[in-house]
Design a protein that fits this description.
This protein is mainly α. It has two domains: about 40 residues; about 90 residues. The chain is about 90% helix and about 0% strand. It contains three helices and no strands. It starts with 7 loop residues before the first helix and ends with a helix.
Amino acid sequence: MAVITIPDVLRERLGEKATMAFVDVIKEVDSESKKDLPTKTDLLATKAELKEDIYKVNERITIEIGKINERITEEVGKINERITIEAAKTNERITEEIGKLRNDYEKTSKEHIKWMFLFWIGQITFMTGFITVILKYFIK
């Protein structure tokens, strides 16, 4: 227990009897306040309880995280399935459009070839006639 020293000024003012009574009051307040303080055993028990509570909270958090991960995996699976379906539809549409473009290209190519032959035949006919006229009238 700590030694309580009362300053001389206060001791003279209170007197010896009052000073002793004042010291007793301070000691009593000190001992009462120490009764309210937890002991080392109490602190260790509280620490053990806190560790147990932390363990339980960690366990609950782990379980909830597991549930959340399951839900996320499930939703990702659904999204992947939808993406696969949509990608297949898009690929199908692209394939159809490419097929249409090929058909159009083939038709256009055939038309161009047909018109080229007609142009060549016209050119050959014209050139033959032109050469015939020149040979007939200018070369005799």
